[in-house]
Amino acid sequence: MTEEQGDGLTIAVFEGTTHQRYWIFTQERLAELRAEANETACADVNEWTNKLRRAGSEEQQPDVVLGPSPGKKARTECEESGVQVDCITLQEEQIIQDYYLEGVFSLSNKLKLPANVETTAITFYKRFYLYCSAMDYHPKDIMFTVLWVACKVEHYPSRYINAQKVVLNENSREFSFDAPAFADHGNIPIEHLLRLEQVLLQVLKYHLMVHHPFRPLRGFLEMWTKRSDSMKLADDVKSKIEEKATKLLRDWMKSDILLILHPSEIALCALRHTCAKAKMEAAFDMFLKDAIGSSAESVGRVYEAIEGNLAAHKQRLKGEQLKTEATRINAKLQGCSNPEKERSHPQFALLEEIKRKEREAAKEAKNLRIAQEQREQEMRLLGIDGGR
């Protein structure tokens, strides 16, 4: 969606989009959603663990129907006779997700992806783990999946389409846009990459348009350079400010601000912060008031919210500490992953086989029912009594 501004600039319309209606939250709501995802995953893991334990004790074969996943309304407490699995905590969820979020940035740098593709992937990653847990789907697999889908959504890989399959390595800076090449690099079987793509789309409710702060950032700078008064921005200064503000925005994307604030608000805050560093705060405030009709105080209030979010983010583990804790949690995940969803679980293949047989049985039953109905209809047309 776009609309024309009076000066001829075209900007993205944010109000009324799926991004604005469904993916902007308060900080408190984000915490609630993540807690619910962890609680539901713990309930599901405990239910499935006890189902599999009971199935094993009764020496049931893969033909047995274990039933569907318990779902969101599953009880968090198991039966008294059931096994309590040592699930990962909400804090551990945050650590393992942060670790692989850094992996999204790292792989994006390796591929030399533009800021819009990188930010779309990061946004998809954060949205996904509002409703799912690392116990459901391992963040390493989701890391590759969000990059794969973001590249397609942003139409970026068209310039890299190559008939030859290119597997990324230390000396490679491009990739061919085909699922096998991407799956090989991520060490993900192609069927699982495509399966996770569908899972991701469902969790995102097929809301794939992400509004980034980079576009309004460029729009505001373009407006500033087109001013006719003495406060207009010189082109060389504009380039330096844009470069520094873009770098600042990329750092901010590691926090939750894109799930909380309007992209234009984020862009204005990044501009003001960058201009303040360059001793141009007064000039920016003048432009802000005259050209946009906003005040430094209103932008300052938004920046306070950003600072609060960034301060909380800075308290999280970084570097070697993050890596050490992520290694420990990865080991713990081996004993508490969801066997119905997470492919690393030893029973995942068994349950996939059960579901495959159930689908085939349902399809066969449907075909038999259709055939029976067709026979009965033919007999009625011929005037034959099926009961004789």
Question: What are its keywords?
Answer:
single chain, 388 residues, mainly alpha, Cyclin A, domain 1, two-stranded antiparallel ribbon, Cyclin/Ssn8
What does this structure look like?
The structure is a single chain. This protein has 388 residues and is mainly alpha-helical. The chain folds into 3 domains: 27-203, Orthogonal Bundle (Cyclin A, domain 1); 213-314, Cyclin-like (Cyclin A, domain 1, Orthogonal Bundle), CATH 1.10.472; 347-388. The chain is built from 14 helices and 2 strands; from the N terminus they run E-E-H-H-H-H-H-H-H-H-H-H-H-H-H-H. It has helices at residues 18-22, 27-57, 90-111, 115-131, 139-153, 179-185, 190-203, 214-225, 235-252, 263-277, 281-292, 296-314, 319-333, 348-382, and strands at residues 2-4, 10-12. The protein has a two-stranded antiparallel sheet. Strand 1 and strand 2 (10-12) form a beta hairpin. The relative contact order is 0.11.
Per DSSP, what share of the residues sits in E-state strands of 2 or more residues?
Answer: under 5%
Count of strand segments: 2
The CATH class of the largest domain: Mainly Alpha
Radius of gyration: 26 Å
Domain Cyclin N-terminal: 104-208
Protein name: Cyclin-like domain-containing protein
Domain Cyclin C-terminal: 212-297
Keywords: Cyclin
